[in-house]
Amino acid sequence: MPAQARIIDGKAAAAELRAGIGREVAAIKAAKGLVPGLHVVLVGDDPASRVYVASKEKLAAEIGMNSVAHRLPAETTEAELLAKIAALNADDAVDGILVQLPLPKHIDTGRIIDAIDPAKDVDGLHPINAGLLAGGKNGLVPCTPLGCMLLLKQTLPSLSGLDAVVVGRSELVGRPVAQLLLQADCTVTIAHSRTRNLAEVVRRADIVVAAVGRPLMIKGDWLKPGATVIDVGINRMPDGKLAGDVDFAEAATVAGAITPVPGGVGPMTIACLLRNTLTAFHARRGK
Ligand SMILES: NC(=O)C1=CN([C@@H]2O[C@H](COP(=O)(O)OP(=O)(O)OC[C@H]3O[C@@H](n4cnc5c(N)ncnc54)[C@H](OP(=O)(O)O)[C@@H]3O)[C@@H](O)[C@H]2O)C=CC1
Ligand SMILES: Nc1nc(=O)c2c([nH]1)NC[C@@H]1CN(c3ccc(C(=O)N[C@@H](CCC(=O)O)C(=O)O)cc3)C=[N+]21
Protein backbone atom coordinates (compact mmCIF):
# COMPACT_ATOMS: atom_id res chain seq x y z
CA MET A 1 0.00 0.00 0.00
CA PRO A 2 1.41 3.44 -0.90
CA ALA A 3 1.66 5.99 1.89
CA GLN A 4 -1.47 8.09 2.27
CA ALA A 5 -1.32 11.82 2.82
CA ARG A 6 -3.10 13.42 5.71
CA ILE A 7 -6.35 15.00 4.46
CA ILE A 8 -6.67 18.65 5.46
CA ASP A 9 -10.30 19.06 6.49
CA GLY A 10 -11.31 22.54 5.31
CA LYS A 11 -14.96 21.87 6.03
CA ALA A 12 -14.25 21.26 9.72
CA ALA A 13 -11.79 24.17 9.99
CA ALA A 14 -14.34 26.49 8.36
CA ALA A 15 -17.12 25.36 10.71
CA GLU A 16 -14.87 26.09 13.69
CA LEU A 17 -13.93 29.51 12.30
CA ARG A 18 -17.59 30.39 11.70
CA ALA A 19 -18.56 29.29 15.21
CA GLY A 20 -15.97 31.67 16.68
CA ILE A 21 -17.19 34.53 14.48
CA GLY A 22 -20.76 33.73 15.56
CA ARG A 23 -19.79 34.11 19.21
CA GLU A 24 -18.18 37.48 18.45
CA VAL A 25 -21.25 38.64 16.53
CA ALA A 26 -23.46 37.69 19.49
CA ALA A 27 -21.16 39.56 21.90
CA ILE A 28 -21.26 42.70 19.71
CA LYS A 29 -25.04 42.53 19.54
CA ALA A 30 -25.33 42.15 23.31
CA ALA A 31 -22.85 44.93 24.13
CA LYS A 32 -23.67 47.51 21.45
CA GLY A 33 -26.95 46.49 19.85
CA LEU A 34 -25.19 46.47 16.45
CA VAL A 35 -25.21 43.72 13.81
CA PRO A 36 -22.39 43.49 11.23
CA GLY A 37 -23.80 43.65 7.69
CA LEU A 38 -22.53 41.81 4.61
CA HIS A 39 -23.90 42.85 1.22
CA VAL A 40 -23.29 40.67 -1.83
CA VAL A 41 -24.06 42.06 -5.27
CA LEU A 42 -24.83 39.57 -8.01
CA VAL A 43 -25.35 40.77 -11.59
CA GLY A 44 -26.99 38.33 -14.00
CA ASP A 45 -27.87 34.70 -13.49
CA ASP A 46 -24.68 32.66 -13.82
CA PRO A 47 -25.79 29.39 -12.14
CA ALA A 48 -22.48 28.77 -10.30
CA SER A 49 -22.47 32.34 -8.95
CA ARG A 50 -26.07 31.95 -7.81
CA VAL A 51 -25.11 28.88 -5.78
CA TYR A 52 -22.15 30.66 -4.13
CA VAL A 53 -24.21 33.73 -3.28
CA ALA A 54 -26.98 31.60 -1.74
CA SER A 55 -24.37 29.75 0.32
CA LYS A 56 -22.78 33.01 1.55
CA GLU A 57 -26.23 34.34 2.51
CA LYS A 58 -27.15 31.20 4.42
CA LEU A 59 -23.87 30.95 6.35
CA ALA A 60 -23.84 34.65 7.23
CA ALA A 61 -27.42 34.39 8.54
CA GLU A 62 -26.49 31.26 10.52
CA ILE A 63 -23.91 33.18 12.57
CA GLY A 64 -26.29 36.09 13.16
CA MET A 65 -24.88 38.57 10.68
CA ASN A 66 -27.15 40.77 8.64
CA SER A 67 -26.68 39.34 5.17
CA VAL A 68 -28.27 40.92 2.12
CA ALA A 69 -28.00 39.71 -1.49
CA HIS A 70 -28.64 42.32 -4.17
CA ARG A 71 -29.63 40.42 -7.31
CA LEU A 72 -29.49 42.67 -10.37
CA PRO A 73 -30.54 41.72 -13.91
CA ALA A 74 -27.88 40.78 -16.53
CA GLU A 75 -28.75 43.98 -18.46
CA THR A 76 -27.73 46.22 -15.54
CA THR A 77 -25.50 49.00 -16.91
CA GLU A 78 -22.12 49.94 -15.49
CA ALA A 79 -23.62 53.28 -14.36
CA GLU A 80 -26.45 51.50 -12.53
CA LEU A 81 -24.01 49.17 -10.79
CA LEU A 82 -21.80 52.13 -9.81
CA ALA A 83 -24.88 53.83 -8.35
CA LYS A 84 -25.68 50.69 -6.35
CA ILE A 85 -22.14 50.62 -4.95
CA ALA A 86 -22.26 54.32 -4.11
CA ALA A 87 -25.46 53.69 -2.12
CA LEU A 88 -23.84 50.78 -0.22
CA ASN A 89 -20.70 52.88 0.42
CA ALA A 90 -22.88 55.62 1.92
CA ASP A 91 -24.93 53.30 4.15
CA ASP A 92 -23.32 53.10 7.61
CA ALA A 93 -25.02 49.76 8.36
CA VAL A 94 -23.13 48.14 5.47
CA ASP A 95 -19.80 46.77 6.72
CA GLY A 96 -18.84 44.51 3.82
CA ILE A 97 -19.47 44.74 0.07
CA LEU A 98 -18.69 41.84 -2.26
CA VAL A 99 -19.40 42.05 -5.98
CA GLN A 100 -19.57 38.49 -7.26
CA LEU A 101 -17.24 37.86 -10.20
CA PRO A 102 -17.24 37.38 -13.13
CA LEU A 103 -19.40 40.35 -14.16
CA PRO A 104 -21.21 40.49 -17.52
CA LYS A 105 -18.84 41.49 -20.35
CA HIS A 106 -20.33 44.97 -20.89
CA ILE A 107 -19.21 46.01 -17.38
CA ASP A 108 -15.58 47.02 -16.68
CA THR A 109 -14.66 44.97 -13.59
CA GLY A 110 -11.74 47.24 -12.65
CA ARG A 111 -13.96 50.33 -12.54
CA ILE A 112 -16.43 48.55 -10.28
CA ILE A 113 -13.78 47.28 -7.84
CA ASP A 114 -12.18 50.75 -7.75
CA ALA A 115 -15.54 52.25 -6.72
CA ILE A 116 -15.92 50.11 -3.58
CA ASP A 117 -14.97 51.87 -0.34
CA PRO A 118 -11.66 50.13 0.54
CA ALA A 119 -12.80 49.96 4.19
CA LYS A 120 -15.78 47.81 3.06
CA ASP A 121 -13.90 45.77 0.45
CA VAL A 122 -14.21 42.36 2.13
CA ASP A 123 -12.91 40.66 -1.03
CA GLY A 124 -9.62 42.55 -0.59
CA LEU A 125 -9.46 43.36 -4.31
CA HIS A 126 -9.41 47.18 -4.23
CA PRO A 127 -6.01 48.57 -5.31
CA ILE A 128 -5.57 50.12 -1.84
CA ASN A 129 -5.91 46.72 -0.17
CA ALA A 130 -3.84 44.94 -2.84
CA GLY A 131 -1.17 47.65 -2.44
CA LEU A 132 -1.13 47.33 1.35
CA LEU A 133 -0.71 43.56 0.97
CA ALA A 134 2.16 44.02 -1.49
CA GLY A 135 3.81 46.31 1.06
CA GLY A 136 3.41 43.75 3.83
CA LYS A 137 0.91 45.99 5.71
CA ASN A 138 -2.36 44.18 5.52
CA GLY A 139 -5.69 45.93 5.10
CA LEU A 140 -8.48 43.59 4.07
CA VAL A 141 -6.90 40.42 2.64
CA PRO A 142 -8.60 38.37 -0.13
CA CYS A 143 -10.66 35.52 1.37
CA THR A 144 -9.32 32.51 -0.53
CA PRO A 145 -5.64 33.33 0.13
CA LEU A 146 -6.48 33.95 3.79
CA GLY A 147 -8.19 30.56 3.93
CA CYS A 148 -5.17 28.86 2.33
CA MET A 149 -2.87 30.36 4.96
CA LEU A 150 -5.08 29.28 7.85
CA LEU A 151 -5.07 25.71 6.53
CA LEU A 152 -1.27 25.77 6.09
CA LYS A 153 -0.72 27.15 9.59
CA GLN A 154 -2.88 24.42 11.14
CA THR A 155 -1.02 21.75 9.13
CA LEU A 156 2.64 22.76 9.49
CA PRO A 157 4.50 23.63 12.71
CA SER A 158 6.31 26.48 10.92
CA LEU A 159 6.33 27.95 7.41
CA SER A 160 9.60 29.83 7.82
CA GLY A 161 12.22 29.00 5.21
CA LEU A 162 10.05 26.51 3.32
CA ASP A 163 9.98 26.50 -0.49
CA ALA A 164 6.49 27.46 -1.68
CA VAL A 165 5.35 27.25 -5.30
CA VAL A 166 2.11 28.98 -6.27
CA VAL A 167 0.72 27.91 -9.63
CA GLY A 168 -1.41 30.78 -10.96
CA ARG A 169 -0.96 34.57 -10.75
CA SER A 170 -4.52 35.97 -10.69
CA GLU A 171 -5.37 39.07 -8.66
CA LEU A 172 -8.03 37.04 -6.79
CA VAL A 173 -5.85 34.10 -5.70
CA GLY A 174 -2.31 33.50 -7.01
CA ARG A 175 -0.73 36.91 -6.39
CA PRO A 176 -2.19 37.57 -2.93
CA VAL A 177 -1.47 34.04 -1.66
CA ALA A 178 2.15 34.47 -2.80
CA GLN A 179 2.34 37.74 -0.81
CA LEU A 180 1.04 36.00 2.30
CA LEU A 181 3.52 33.12 1.91
CA LEU A 182 6.32 35.67 1.61
CA GLN A 183 5.09 37.39 4.79
CA ALA A 184 5.28 33.97 6.47
CA ASP A 185 8.97 33.78 5.43
CA CYS A 186 8.59 31.15 2.72
CA THR A 187 10.83 31.26 -0.36
CA VAL A 188 8.14 31.89 -2.96
CA THR A 189 7.99 30.99 -6.65
CA ILE A 190 5.00 32.08 -8.72
CA ALA A 191 4.41 29.85 -11.74
CA HIS A 192 1.95 30.52 -14.57
CA SER A 193 1.07 29.55 -18.13
CA ARG A 194 4.47 30.63 -19.49
CA THR A 195 6.51 28.79 -16.87
CA ARG A 196 8.99 26.33 -18.38
CA ASN A 197 9.34 22.83 -16.91
CA LEU A 198 6.42 23.35 -14.55
CA ALA A 199 6.65 19.80 -13.17
CA GLU A 200 10.27 20.40 -12.16
CA VAL A 201 9.44 23.73 -10.55
CA VAL A 202 6.62 22.15 -8.56
CA ARG A 203 8.88 19.26 -7.52
CA ARG A 204 11.09 21.70 -5.55
CA ALA A 205 8.20 22.78 -3.35
CA ASP A 206 7.57 21.97 0.29
CA ILE A 207 4.26 23.79 -0.19
CA VAL A 208 2.24 23.77 -3.42
CA VAL A 209 -0.72 26.10 -3.90
CA ALA A 210 -2.61 25.28 -7.09
CA ALA A 211 -4.88 28.05 -8.45
CA VAL A 212 -5.12 27.39 -12.17
CA GLY A 213 -8.61 26.24 -13.15
CA ARG A 214 -7.44 23.12 -15.02
CA PRO A 215 -8.84 19.88 -13.62
CA LEU A 216 -6.31 17.30 -12.36
CA MET A 217 -3.38 19.12 -14.01
CA ILE A 218 -0.86 18.56 -11.21
CA LYS A 219 0.17 14.92 -11.13
CA GLY A 220 1.50 12.80 -8.29
CA ASP A 221 5.00 12.55 -9.78
CA TRP A 222 5.24 16.39 -9.89
CA LEU A 223 5.37 16.48 -6.09
CA LYS A 224 8.23 16.29 -3.64
CA PRO A 225 7.44 13.39 -1.27
CA GLY A 226 5.87 14.75 1.90
CA ALA A 227 4.89 18.12 0.35
CA THR A 228 1.84 20.01 1.65
CA VAL A 229 -0.65 20.59 -1.17
CA ILE A 230 -3.36 23.28 -1.12
CA ASP A 231 -5.72 22.81 -4.06
CA VAL A 232 -7.72 25.97 -4.78
CA GLY A 233 -9.12 24.79 -8.12
CA ILE A 234 -12.84 24.21 -8.41
CA ASN A 235 -13.67 22.57 -11.71
CA ARG A 236 -17.03 21.12 -12.71
CA MET A 237 -16.46 17.79 -14.48
CA PRO A 238 -18.67 16.39 -17.28
CA ASP A 239 -20.22 13.97 -14.76
CA GLY A 240 -21.28 16.96 -12.64
CA LYS A 241 -18.77 16.30 -9.85
CA LEU A 242 -16.21 18.86 -8.66
CA ALA A 243 -12.47 18.32 -9.12
CA GLY A 244 -9.45 20.34 -8.11
CA ASP A 245 -6.38 21.35 -10.13
CA VAL A 246 -4.44 18.50 -8.49
CA ASP A 247 -4.89 14.84 -9.37
CA PHE A 248 -5.97 13.97 -5.86
CA ALA A 249 -5.81 10.15 -6.14
CA GLU A 250 -2.20 10.28 -7.36
CA ALA A 251 -1.09 13.16 -5.14
CA ALA A 252 -2.42 11.55 -1.97
CA THR A 253 0.13 8.74 -2.38
CA VAL A 254 3.08 11.22 -2.49
CA ALA A 255 2.08 14.32 -0.49
CA GLY A 256 2.39 14.66 3.27
CA ALA A 257 -0.91 16.52 3.50
CA ILE A 258 -3.48 17.65 0.94
CA THR A 259 -6.79 19.52 0.75
CA PRO A 260 -9.70 17.73 -0.93
CA VAL A 261 -12.10 19.30 -3.45
CA PRO A 262 -14.82 19.79 -2.35
CA GLY A 263 -14.29 20.24 1.39
CA GLY A 264 -10.93 22.02 1.32
CA VAL A 265 -10.31 25.65 0.44
CA GLY A 266 -13.87 26.42 -0.73
CA PRO A 267 -15.56 26.40 2.69
CA MET A 268 -12.62 28.38 4.14
CA THR A 269 -13.17 31.10 1.53
CA ILE A 270 -16.68 31.75 2.76
CA ALA A 271 -15.66 31.59 6.43
CA CYS A 272 -12.89 34.13 5.72
CA LEU A 273 -15.41 36.40 4.00
CA LEU A 274 -17.38 36.44 7.26
CA ARG A 275 -14.14 37.02 9.19
CA ASN A 276 -13.31 39.99 6.90
CA THR A 277 -16.79 41.43 7.43
CA LEU A 278 -16.17 41.36 11.17
CA THR A 279 -12.71 42.91 10.67
CA ALA A 280 -14.28 45.69 8.58
CA PHE A 281 -16.98 46.20 11.22
CA HIS A 282 -14.37 46.59 13.98
CA ALA A 283 -12.27 49.01 11.93
CA ARG A 284 -15.26 51.17 10.89
CA ARG A 285 -17.66 51.26 13.84
CA GLY A 286 -16.56 48.77 16.46
CA LYS A 287 -14.64 51.27 18.52
N1 LIG B 1 -11.80 27.54 -3.61
C1 LIG B 1 -12.17 28.80 -3.76
O1 LIG B 1 -12.69 29.40 -2.87
C2 LIG B 1 -11.91 29.48 -5.05
C3 LIG B 1 -11.58 28.73 -6.13
N2 LIG B 1 -11.26 29.31 -7.32
C4 LIG B 1 -10.83 28.42 -8.39
O2 LIG B 1 -9.41 28.49 -8.50
C5 LIG B 1 -9.02 28.34 -9.86
C6 LIG B 1 -8.19 29.55 -10.27
O3 LIG B 1 -8.97 30.71 -10.16
P1 LIG B 1 -8.43 32.15 -10.63
O4 LIG B 1 -7.13 32.42 -9.98
O5 LIG B 1 -9.55 33.09 -10.44
O6 LIG B 1 -8.21 31.82 -12.19
P2 LIG B 1 -7.62 32.71 -13.39
O7 LIG B 1 -8.16 32.08 -14.62
O8 LIG B 1 -7.84 34.14 -13.14
O9 LIG B 1 -6.05 32.44 -13.31
C7 LIG B 1 -5.52 31.21 -13.66
C8 LIG B 1 -4.00 31.25 -13.56
O10 LIG B 1 -3.51 29.97 -13.93
C9 LIG B 1 -2.48 30.12 -14.89
N3 LIG B 1 -2.47 29.00 -15.84
C10 LIG B 1 -3.37 28.71 -16.79
N4 LIG B 1 -3.00 27.61 -17.48
C11 LIG B 1 -1.84 27.19 -16.95
C12 LIG B 1 -0.95 26.14 -17.23
N5 LIG B 1 -1.19 25.26 -18.20
N6 LIG B 1 0.15 26.03 -16.49
C13 LIG B 1 0.42 26.89 -15.50
N7 LIG B 1 -0.39 27.93 -15.18
C14 LIG B 1 -1.50 28.08 -15.90
C15 LIG B 1 -2.77 31.41 -15.60
O11 LIG B 1 -1.55 31.89 -16.13
P3 LIG B 1 -1.42 33.27 -16.99
O12 LIG B 1 -1.49 34.38 -15.96
O13 LIG B 1 -0.08 33.14 -17.62
O14 LIG B 1 -2.56 33.26 -17.94
C16 LIG B 1 -3.36 32.27 -14.49
O15 LIG B 1 -2.35 32.98 -13.81
C17 LIG B 1 -10.31 28.13 -10.62
O16 LIG B 1 -10.55 26.75 -10.72
C18 LIG B 1 -11.36 28.76 -9.74
O17 LIG B 1 -12.63 28.22 -9.94
C19 LIG B 1 -11.23 30.67 -7.44
C20 LIG B 1 -11.58 31.49 -6.38
C21 LIG B 1 -11.98 30.95 -5.12
N1 LIG C 1 -15.86 38.55 -5.85
C1 LIG C 1 -15.67 37.24 -5.76
N2 LIG C 1 -15.06 36.71 -4.68
C2 LIG C 1 -14.88 35.37 -4.57
O1 LIG C 1 -14.28 34.88 -3.58
C3 LIG C 1 -15.36 34.53 -5.62
C4 LIG C 1 -15.98 35.14 -6.72
N3 LIG C 1 -16.13 36.48 -6.76
N4 LIG C 1 -16.40 34.39 -7.76
C5 LIG C 1 -16.27 32.95 -7.76
C6 LIG C 1 -15.15 32.45 -6.86
C7 LIG C 1 -15.33 31.01 -6.44
N5 LIG C 1 -15.54 31.05 -5.00
C8 LIG C 1 -15.88 29.94 -4.22
C9 LIG C 1 -16.28 30.05 -2.91
C10 LIG C 1 -16.67 28.94 -2.17
C11 LIG C 1 -16.69 27.69 -2.73
C12 LIG C 1 -17.15 26.52 -1.94
O2 LIG C 1 -17.65 26.64 -0.85
N6 LIG C 1 -17.00 25.27 -2.47
C13 LIG C 1 -17.40 24.04 -1.83
C14 LIG C 1 -18.29 23.20 -2.75
C15 LIG C 1 -19.51 23.89 -3.24
C16 LIG C 1 -20.30 23.01 -4.20
O3 LIG C 1 -20.53 21.84 -3.88
O4 LIG C 1 -20.66 23.52 -5.29
C17 LIG C 1 -16.18 23.19 -1.52
O5 LIG C 1 -15.15 23.40 -2.19
O6 LIG C 1 -16.29 22.33 -0.66
C18 LIG C 1 -16.27 27.56 -4.03
C19 LIG C 1 -15.85 28.67 -4.76
C20 LIG C 1 -15.46 32.32 -4.57
N7 LIG C 1 -15.21 33.17 -5.59
Automatic annotation (TrEMBL):
SUPFAM superfamilies (UniProt xref): Aminoacid dehydrogenase-like, N-terminal domain, NAD(P)-binding Rossmann-fold domains
Domain Tetrahydrofolate dehydrogenase/cyclohydrolase catalytic: from-to ranges: 8-123
Involved pathway(s): One-carbon metabolism; tetrahydrofolate interconversion
Keywords associated with the record: Amino-acid biosynthesis, Histidine biosynthesis, Hydrolase, Methionine biosynthesis, Multifunctional enzyme, NADP, One-carbon metabolism, Oxidoreductase, Purine biosynthesis
Gene3D superfamilies assigned to the protein according to its UniProt record, in alphabetical order: Leucine Dehydrogenase, chain A, domain 1, NAD(P)-binding Rossmann-like Domain
EC number(s) per entry: 1.5.1.5, 3.5.4.9
Binding sites annotated in the UniProt record for NADP(+): 168-170, 234
Keyword Hydrolase: yes
Boundaries of every Tetrahydrofolate dehydrogenase/cyclohydrolase NAD(P)-binding domain copy: 142-283
Family: Belongs to the tetrahydrofolate dehydrogenase/cyclohydrolase family.
Protein name, as recorded: Bifunctional protein FolD
Organism (species): Bosea rubneri
